[in-house]
Amino acid sequence: MSTRIHITSGLSIAAGEIDYHAIRAQGAGGQNVNKVSSAIHLAFDIKDSSLPERYKSALLSLSDQRITKDGIIIIKAQRYRTQEQNKEDALTRLRQLIIKAGHQDKPRKATKPTKSSQKKRLDSKTLRGRTKAMRSKVID
Largest alpha-carbon pair distance within the chain? Predict the structure, then answer.
């Protein structure tokens, strides 16, 4: 029985579909930075996953630098000092990416301006034109 990682209330993926690799973190860290592999590389293959087709196609069509041409999401987490926290951070970022891909905007309904708003706009243009006409030179 493999554990499942919950993305949303109705969507989850098998934990075995995600590969983790511990690597050394970059940047400041004192004496520990060269000894401890606390950063995490998370790899998730979109095409071989158990995600529904609409999520797969949406993820593959995203222009995100974390998604390779082969359809593999690679997330590098090195924000925290422990592997466990970085692993959780990488999972959270994967969840957010999948949720973002699955989100569909509501279709926009075309609207027309009301008659009164059209009249008001034209009246203000006429008034502005008169004001500017008053500024011109007087011709005898």
Answer: 97
The predicted model scores a pTM of 0.67
As beta bridge partners, residue 72 has 45
Pairing of strands 11-14, 18-23: unpaired
Overall average pLDDT of the 91-101 stretch? 86
CB distance 55 to 101 below 8 Å: yes
pLDDT digits (tens, 9 = 90+) for 40-75: 888 888 887 778 888 788 888 877 788 888 888 888
Can you tell me the distance from the alpha carbon of 80 to that of 24, in angstroms, rounded to the nearest whole number?
12
Task: Report residue 127 as tokens.
Answer: 């008034």
Number of domains into which the chain is organized: 1
The Cα 43–Cα 66 span in angstroms is: 10
Task: Report d(CA 84, CA 92) in Å as an integer.
Answer: 12
State how far the Cα of 44 lies from the Cα of 39, in Å rounded to an integer: 17
pLDDT at 28: 66
Residue 79 lies in a domain: yes
Using only the alpha carbons of the chain, give its radius of gyration. Answer: 28
The parent domain of residue 9 ranges over 4-102
